[in-house]
């Protein structure tokens, strides 16, 4: 029995109505979805930490989520794990004609945008007479920054986009003014709406600069945390009450932390 077969059997046993685990038995697609997302983030975290051993374990946890969903689907006759594997095999072969296609296709270099064109054809075929929008198929639950980037890319694919970064920068300036106006109005709902518009415009600038906004913000978060912890450590080393430092003293420590991290880089 292969390890995959063992894993499928373990999952089946956990969901056995007579002898299975009570917690596993009461789960459904919706209740398991947050765990699936969490495991994907833990995989990304292991990669960021360059912890290969942890990556192996986290990939196993993520695979278990796939097996869990497949088992629940199998129980109701929707599909099983083999269907999941078959579907992704067929999709990868279909999307890589330069690798798996005809002899002529394998000799050709993929043209720019070929991958997205294949995906677009798949979306049209899947939608049938349904949603034919250029925005069809973008997951509702994507993180907001990633979704904003995808929305911008899809709109751009049908010509709705700024021709260069100058137009995006002008849009950001416009949205900044509208945030200020909303702030003056004192209406929290208006402020939130305009802040959303500003963030959306910033994501579009990142897209035009070929920067992944989710990754850029994650790196900025990590940098801020690293520098802030240095400030706290410095205060602790000098037996200073960090919470009682004024803004000028904090700024001095912040600049020192910045210089230290730059030297370390």
Give the radius of gyration: 25 Å
Strand content: under 5%
The number of helices is 13
CATH homologous superfamily heading of the largest domain: MazG-like
Total strands: 0
Largest sheet properties: none
Polypeptide structure, described:
- The protein has 265 residues and is an all-alpha fold.
- It has three domains: 3-79, Helix Hairpins (Orthogonal Bundle), CATH 1.10.287.1080; 114-211, MazG-like (Helix Hairpins); 215-264, no CATH class.
- The chain is built from 13 helices and no strands.
- The chain has helices at residues 3-14, 22-25, 29-48, 52-75, 81-95, 97-100, 103-106, 114-127, 144-157, 165-185, 188-208, 213-237, 247-264.
- The longest helix is centred in the last third of the chain and has 25 residues, at 213-237.
- The chain is extended and about 65 Å long.
- 7% of the residues are buried.
List the helices and strands and how they pair.
Blueprint: H1 3-14, H2 22-25, H3 29-48, H4 52-75, H5 81-95, H6 97-100, H7 103-106, H8 114-127, H9 144-157, H10 165-185, H11 188-208, H12 213-237, H13 247-264
Keywords:
265 residues, mainly alpha, Helix Hairpins, 3 domains
Brief summary:
The protein contains 13 helices and no strands. The chain is an all-alpha fold and 265 residues long. The protein is extended, with a radius of gyration of 25 Å.
